[in-house]
Design brief:
The protein has about 290 residues and is mainly alpha-helical. It is built from 14 helices and no strands. The chain is globular.
Length: about 290
């Protein structure tokens, strides 16, 4: 029995996010500076996915990239910004803060879809949007006191980029934007290379960086690019809540980084609000 689009999209998005959950921990464990890390997080995934695309499309790959048009160009650009700002955010605030900002992506997707795809959110979605933004402001205020505001802002920009990217994919369901995402990764590497002091990987970085780039970056970005073809952009981004929950747990278990009380409080409000919204939406769709 063939899977429905809803089941396909859900399975793909879930698998992608489970691969992503240790990403923040790997970033913390890496001993290279931010721009070196950003370079490798762009170049290695690009190389892996590009080789895969060459096997699939062969000489037609360039044509496939060009045929994506403005959707592909815009997706590559948002993908580039999101990938760069995520690393900068992680290294300038608590992991929990960054991931809680990313938890806002589903609501941001709903807002953007309302304006550009005419997918009108219902009252409970607007209510959830209001609650999550108030909680985010609460976390931002706490971060100002702790000196983490810079990292939180970049976390919010990352969430916005994820939301925009998912809406772009949703608006071009008939197209395969994975080649455009690969170009986005290449742009990340090209931008970062101007700030890289040296390309040497030493000690544990020899294993940590390549493993992170393949397992937590290359595989998930392909799956996250495919998922919105089957389910809405907001639904795809809802799965990032799993990273919000598991990401800080990995970091706390391994390196004992504990989020502030305000971050925990604000994060619980955001996660609870979105979880209730998701449950109500799923219940409505199954009735």
């Amino acid at each position: 029995m063939p899977y429905s689009d809803q089941k396909k999209g859900t399975l793909i998005a879930f698998t992608a996010i489970m691969f992503i959950t240790p990403d923040s921990l790997f970033i913390r464990l890496a001993n290279i500076n931010s721009w070196n890390l950003i370079f490798y997080r762009g170049f290695i995934p690009f190389l892996v996915v590009f080789l895969g695309l060459l096997i699939i499309y062969k000489t037609k790959l360039l044509k496939e990239i060009i045929s994506n048009g403005w959707h592909g160009f815009f997706y590559a650009c948002t993908f580039t910004v999101t990938n760069i700002f995520f690393v900068i955010s992680i290294e300038n605030t608590n992991v929990a803060n960054t991931l809680i900002m990313i938890a806002l992506a589903p609501m941001l997707s709903a807002i953007i879809s309302f304006f550009f795809l005419k997918e009108n959110p219902d009252k409970k979605t607007w209510t959830t949007i209001f609650i999550t933004f108030m909680a985010a402001i609460y976390i931002f205020y706490d971060s100002i006191q702790l000196g983490n505001f810079f990292g939180d802002v970049f976390g919010f920009i990352t969430a916005t980029g994820l939301a925009i990217g998912a809406v772009v994919v949703r608006s071009a369901k008939e197209r395969n934007l994975v080649p455009s995402a690969a170009i986005g990764k290449l742009l990340v590497a090209i931008f970062a290379v101007f700030f890289v002091e040296n390309f040497e990987l030493v000690e544990t970085d020899i294993f940590i960086v390549p493993l992170m780039c393949v397992m937590c970056v290359a595989i998930p970005f392909v799956l996250v690019t495919i998922a919105p073809r089957f389910i809405t952009a907001a639904e795809v981004n809802l799965f990032f809540l799993l990273e919000t929950i598991f990401g800080p747990i990995w970091v706390w278990l391994v390196i004992k980084e504990q989020p502030s009380l305000e971050t925990i409080q604000g994060g619980l409000v955001i996660i609870t609000a979105i979880a209730i919204h998701s449950y109500m939406s799923l219940k409505k769709n199954t009735n």
